[in-house]
Amino acid sequence: MKESTEETVWQVRNSFLGVYVHFPYCFKKCDYCDFYSEGIGASPANDELSLFSAYQKEVLERVSHFPNLRHRTIDTVFFGGGTPSKAKTKNWSHFLEFLRSEFNVSRDVEISIEVNPEDLSSQLLDEYAKIGINRVNVGVQTRNPQGLEYLGRHYDKEKYDSLFLTLTHSPIKRVGIDLMYGIPGLQRSDFLSDLHYFLEAGFPHLSLYSLTLEKGTQYSRDVKDHKKKEPEESIQSEILTTLPELMKSHGYRWYEVSNYAKPGFESKHNLKYWTFEPYLGIGPGAHGMIEGYRYGNPRNANLYQKKIPAKQYEPVTPNSELALTLFRLFSPFRYLEFIETYLDKSSQTKFKETINLWEKRGLCTVSNGIFQWKKEALLLLDDLILSIAN
Ligand code: SF4
């Protein structure tokens, strides 16, 4: 990554390592969620200790399979889920100690955790700051109680009302908020009112997602049974195209299709997925990409703990995978460097030809090996990415 006063230009950066850890338990399974997660109410998970011990076993098994991993420096750690804020802080602390004892960890490592509003408190943030967590991402989705109910999401009024104040006094300054739009029954103005509420606080990172209908979820079954409506697509397109200017006027950079950050506050960990950097994925339902291979763990916490899966690896196929990730970036990136590092000659030619066509159609700018989408590409993005990936 190279910082400039104008804009960060992303470049190939593949000698570091990110670590993602999946904690699969939540207070309640949300109806739209297709991550591997299980709703268990307010109590702690029965198997929390053994799950954390399985995390360590999995790291060691992956390292024994790819000893080269030890030569990498960990520069990002991300505790995701599920709801990782449901787990005891001391277990995350032990896991971080374990990583530090096994790997080189960069001095300016980014350590993030996803927090759900029901768990958020000043005390929790203090605990996180003490163990070295320096970025929190809060899954708010919407502050509208009807919207949360529609999503089948747990709502704790007191916590939703106090989260603004708790986060503005947080000892951890890298705060991200996730908001969702296109929830049936809510209007554009409902979303904008949520957004302005958080813009006022100046939290440095906002992930602004549209609600999607994912196969196998309760929401998709409810839509099929005509109990619920599909996401509001016309409102979604309208919001999607309004956001870049609106966010820019508040000092945010649009760096990925759904992600906005104040300069320097981008999620270093999530950027790894989009810029094809290696990462270990640990825990049930986690995916990883290390040393040119991908793997995925079973979406079942019991099974995962019984038999740590460390032997099934698929070679990465960069020709399509690079396209599917890299072209989600809306900030500039050194596309020539990426394709020359990862692609074979014939794919390089295809990428260059397709990019030329896009440039002629006025969808992107290309200069000195640097690519950047124009906002005209936004509504066509999925098709454009598929056209270069296939
Ligand atoms: S809290 Fe997050 S991970 Fe858990 S069920 Fe809801 S959306 Fe999924």
UniProtKB/TrEMBL annotation:
One GO location term (cellular component): cytoplasm
PROSITE patterns to which the protein is assigned, alphabetical: RADICAL_SAM
Location of the Radical SAM core domain: 9-253
Keyword Transmembrane carried by entry: no
Pfam families: Radical_SAM
Compartment annotation: Cytoplasm
GO MF term set: 4 iron, 4 sulfur cluster binding; coproporphyrinogen oxidase activity; metal ion binding
UniProt keyword annotations, A-Z: 4Fe-4S, Chaperone, Cytoplasm, Heme, Iron, Iron-sulfur, Metal-binding, S-adenosyl-L-methionine
GO BP annotations, alphabetical order: porphyrin-containing compound biosynthetic process
Entry's family note: Belongs to the anaerobic coproporphyrinogen-III oxidase family. HemW subfamily.
Function: Probably acts as a heme chaperone, transferring heme to an unknown acceptor. Binds one molecule of heme per monomer, possibly covalently. Binds 1 [4Fe-4S] cluster. The cluster is coordinated with 3 cysteines and an exchangeable S-adenosyl-L-methionine.
The name this protein goes by in its record: Heme chaperone HemW
Organism the protein comes from: Leptospira jelokensis
Gene assigned in the entry: hemW
